[in-house]
């Protein structure tokens, strides 16, 4: 038997200095949707998330909390697991960088780089931003009125002078450029790709990859005064989780190179420049793609702890509903662009797209079946051209969604689905099955069957984004759980729904939200 196609998708591992917020939920949600979509499409999927627990930033936060760093990270990492439960994320592995498997993996990649003469001992003097865990050149900084120097991210920098190991990044510029050239989809969206290419064309300096002025991290093999740079440590998580350094391990063989590292635009450079250079230097294939998505703001303002406007994903789920929140985040903003969260926009999406368009379509159809077909899947007669046209649109959806999802265009995938929702709503209005019940019952059954079949397909296709609502809808159509994958979306509209099958009483899927519901209510 041919082995199944594999798909490996990863989230960034989140710093445990802070509680999870909407940004973290967003990135992991996008990965969850991809993982679910690929599983339903027959792929063998590995979906990795986790927490980044080393480095100066976490060490300082633990200190500020008056806690031992390990106890602090144990507690804070738990918050990200809770988020995954609250958001219904279907990850296969949750990695923590303080785990033994990861520490040995980091030391192994370091050793490999050292053996390949890619690392040398020197000393670093320059600027460092703890908040970004990044080194900056003088030319990248701006000075505030009171003489403070800031990184492009707005993070304050401090002067660092210490012995340090360096990675020979300067040797890799040409090979990175050749790699980007040969793999035009390695960095998406294209605008981000252009930024990275011009950064690399500007020349690369060797990168400091160890620190000696604090202790919270992975010791450098054979020189434990040095702690590995937290980004070399963190990036390595993606291969640790497949069993590195055992590259013969079944997981490594099956899933490396990763199909997709999903990241926010803030950390693209680490993933698209440093990471492929580290990997190539260690003799490991680089990942296939890095997608850098945009940034959320809150009612037009930058989200920050100091402004006190952090959006808590747990509260969103409580107030608007889980599937509603998942839908909103991926539908509202073209994936890749920056986006603004607002209560109004959320209300509008939930009421218009979910309650009115999709919810009503399902509710109207299922209620008509309940009332007029003795609560059983109707029996269709021959399909006319209107029936066939709607069915053809629903059948054609899977291929167009594959195209959108493979380029991480989630908003377009949802738009395509809603085009068919609208077509089905037009069809029900035009066919008016409530009138047919008096004039032509056979035709009424055909129309209701077509609608039920289209809804079945829509429910399966929307299930990666709204797994809960989709499952409830498929329950209402009495579709068994094992018949809810994309293999059930072939061209034959009568292959899956069983005429005569008794259906449960319909329940509304998405209650309308009132103006006053939500934050500030
Ligand atoms: O950077 N809008 O961790 P981190 C959208 N540990 N996405 C946002 C966001 C916002 N306002 N704020 C955060 C790190 N994110 C490193 C990663 S990976 C080997 C190591 C998301 O906790 C977005 O994905 O600061 C961003 O890249 C990530 O959280 C940064 O998370």
Shape summary:
elongated
- By DSSP (H or I, 4+ residues per run), the number of helices equals 18
- Structural class, by secondary structure, is alpha/beta
Major sheet characteristics: 7 strands, parallel
Helix content: 40-55%
The Rg value, from CA coordinates, equals 26 Å
Average pLDDT across residues?
A: 96
The fold-level CATH name of the domain at 343-488 is Isoleucyl-tRNA Synthetase, Domain 1
Unreliable stretches (pLDDT < 50, length at least 5) are none
- What bound compounds does this protein have? ligand ME8
Beta-sheet strand percentage?
Answer: 15-25%
CATH architecture of the domain at 343-488: Orthogonal Bundle
Overall strand count: 19
User: Terminal Cα separation, in Å?
Assistant: 57 Å
Q: Give the CATH class of the domain at 343-488.
A: Mainly Alpha
Describe the model.
The structure is a single chain. This protein is α/β, with parallel strands linked by helices and 521 residues long. It has a domain at 343-488: Isoleucyl-tRNA Synthetase, Domain 1 (Orthogonal Bundle). The chain is built from 18 helices and 19 strands. It has helices at residues 22-40, 56-64, 69-86, 100-115, 173-182, 190-201, 230-235, 237-240, 250-255, 268-281, 313-320, 322-332, 343-372, 385-406, 410-431, 433-439, 441-462, 467-476, and strands at 6-10, 14-15, 44-52, 93-96, 119-129, 134-136, 142-143, 149-150, 158-167, 187-188, 207-208, 210-211, 219-220, 223-228, 260-264, 290-293, 296-298, 301-302, 339-341. Strand 5 (119-129) and strand 6 form a beta hairpin. Helix 13 (343-372) packs antiparallel against helix 17 and helix 16 (433-439) packs antiparallel against helix 17 (441-462). It is elongated, with a radius of gyration of 26 Å. The protein starts with 5 loop residues before the first strand and ends in a 45-residue tail after the last helix. Ligand ME8 is lined by residues 12-15, 23-24, 26-27, 52, 234-235, 237, 263-264, 266-267, 295-296, 303. Residues 12-15, 23-24, 26-27, 52, 234-235, 237, 263-264, 266-267, 295-296, 303 line the site of ligand ME8.
């Amino acid at each position: 038997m041919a082995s199944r196609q594999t798909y490996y998708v990863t989230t960034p591992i989140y710093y445990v200095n802070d509680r999870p917020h909407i940004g973290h939920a967003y990135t992991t949600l996008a990965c969850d949707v991809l993982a679910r979509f690929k599983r339903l499409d027959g792929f063998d999927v590995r979906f990795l998330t986790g927490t980044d627990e080393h480095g100066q930033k976490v060490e300082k936060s633990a200190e500020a909390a008056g806690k031992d760093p390990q106890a602090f990270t144990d507690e804070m990492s738990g918050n990200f697991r809770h988020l995954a439960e609250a958001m219904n994320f279907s990850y296969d592995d949750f990695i923590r960088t303080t785990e033994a498997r990861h520490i040995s993996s980091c030391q192994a990649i370091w050793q490999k780089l050292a053996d390949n003469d890619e690392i040398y001992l020197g000393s670093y003097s320059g600027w460092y931003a703890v908040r970004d865990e990044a080194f900056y050149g003088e030319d990248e900084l701006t000075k505030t009125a009171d003489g403070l120097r800031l990184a492009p991210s707005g993070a304050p920098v401090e002067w660092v002078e210490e012995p340090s190991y360096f990675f020979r990044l300067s040797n890799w510029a040409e090979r990175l450029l050749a790699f980007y050239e040969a793999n035009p989809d390695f960095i998406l969206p294209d605008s981000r790709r252009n930024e990275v290419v011009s950064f690399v064309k500007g020349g690369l300096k060797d990168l400091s990859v160890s620190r000696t002025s604090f202790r919270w991290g992975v010791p450098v093999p054979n020189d434990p005064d040095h702690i590995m740079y937290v980004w070399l440590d963190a990036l390595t998580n993606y291969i640790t989780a497949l069993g590195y350094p055992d590259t013969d391990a079944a997981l490594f063989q099956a899933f490396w190179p990763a199909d997709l590292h999903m990241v926010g635009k803030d950390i693209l450079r680490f993933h698209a420049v440093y990471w492929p250079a580290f990997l190539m230097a260690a003799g490991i294939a680089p990942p296939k793609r890095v997608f850098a998505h945009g940034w959320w703001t809150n009612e037009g303002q930058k989200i920050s702890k100091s402004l006190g406007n952090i959006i808590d994903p747990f509260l969103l789920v409580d107030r608007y509903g889980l599937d509603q929140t998942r839908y909103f985040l991926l539908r509202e903003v073209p994936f890749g662009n920056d986006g603004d969260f607002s209560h109004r926009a959320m209300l509008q999406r939930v009421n218009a797209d979910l309650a009115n368009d999709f919810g009503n379509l399902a509710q109207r159809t299922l209620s008509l079946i309940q009332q007029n077909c003795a609560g059983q899947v109707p029996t269709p007669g021959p399909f006319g051209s209107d029936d066939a046209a709607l069915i053809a649109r629903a059948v054609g959806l899977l291929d167009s969604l594959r195209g959108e999802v493979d380029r991480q265009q989630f908003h377009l995938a949802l738009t395509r689905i809603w085009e068919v929702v609208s077509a089905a709503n037009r069809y029900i209005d035009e066919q008016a099955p409530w009138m047919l019940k008096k004039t032509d019952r056979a035709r009424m059954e055909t129309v209701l069957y077509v609608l039920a079949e289209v809804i079945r397909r829509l429910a399966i296709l929307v299930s990666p984004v709204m797994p809960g609502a989709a499952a409830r809808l498929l329950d209402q159509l009495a579709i068994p759980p094992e018949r809810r994958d994309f293999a059930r979306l072939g061209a034959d509209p009568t292959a899956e729904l069983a005429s005569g099958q008794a259906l449960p009483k319909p329940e509304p899927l998405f209650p309308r939200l009132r103006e006053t519901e939500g934050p500030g209510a």
